[in-house]
Design a protein that fits this description.
This protein is mainly alpha-helical. It has 2 domains: 63 residues, Orthogonal Bundle (Arc Repressor Mutant, subunit A); 132 residues, no CATH class. The chain is 74% helix and 0% strand.
Length: 205
């Protein structure tokens, strides 16, 4: 019974997220970003202002369908599994992708999001904030994973930042090949980019 109630609450949460997101997008298409005020979005979705802020931090988030990133417990366990077939480089990238995907719980087509971001630079700024938060989360995980003391601590911090920078480059590369790589449920584009970088690093090292 308890699992059933949790399932119902989760479905209701996702439904409300999508309802608010769809209302926000419709308003933007009708009158531009300025038309998508919190009041207009809540009126269109038929919910209260309080409900809106239970789901989204801003109208920009509602338009994008994005929420603050978090670290999925299941993916974190996979990252920490040293007996995994994947090396730390691959596990790091997979964890970053999983964290970024937590921001997209409201659904929405990747192409539509890219179109809106292209039209309204303010939305790009908000996306960048979420990406920066996601990078901060993964950096904290890496710092803890590679922690040491004294000089070793300094080296571990540098290693964490270097690994994060390489991982970010892999994601940017994947995006140039497939703009929906991070949004997509299929990991093929990400895994292909990892393979390309691994091969390139082997050639120069």
């Amino acid at each position: 019974m308890q699992e059933h109630q949790v399932g119902l609450r989760e479905r209701h949460r996702v439904q409300t997220l999508r309802q608010l997101h769809e209302a926000a997008v419709a308003l933007v298409r009708e009158g531009g970003l300025s038309a998508a005020t919190v009041e207009a979005i809540t009126d269109r979705a038929g919910v209260s202002r309080r409900t809106f802020f239970n789901y989204f931090a801003s109208k920009e988030d509602a338009v994008l369908g994005t929420t603050p990133p978090s670290v999925p417990e299941e993916e974190l366990s996979r990252f920490l599994d040293e007996e995994s077939d994947a090396d730390q480089f691959t596990r790091t990238i997979r964890l970053i992708v999983a964290i970024i995907r937590t921001t997209m719980q409201a659904g929405g087509a990747p192409g539509e999001r890219r179109e809106l971001v292209a039209r309204f630079p303010e939305l790009r700024d908000r996306l960048s904030q979420h990406v920066s938060t996601a990078e901060g989360l993964i950096e904290a995980v890496l710092a803890e994973r590679l922690s040491g003391s004294g000089p070793a601590q300094s080296r571990s911090a540098e290693s964490s930042r270097a690994l994060l920078m390489i991982a970010s480059a892999v994601l940017r590369f994947a995006y140039t090949r497939d703009p929906g790589a991070v949004d997509a449920a299929s990991p093929d584009a990400i895994e292909s980019a990892i393979s390309v970088f691994r091969a390139a690093l082997k050639e120069i090292l």
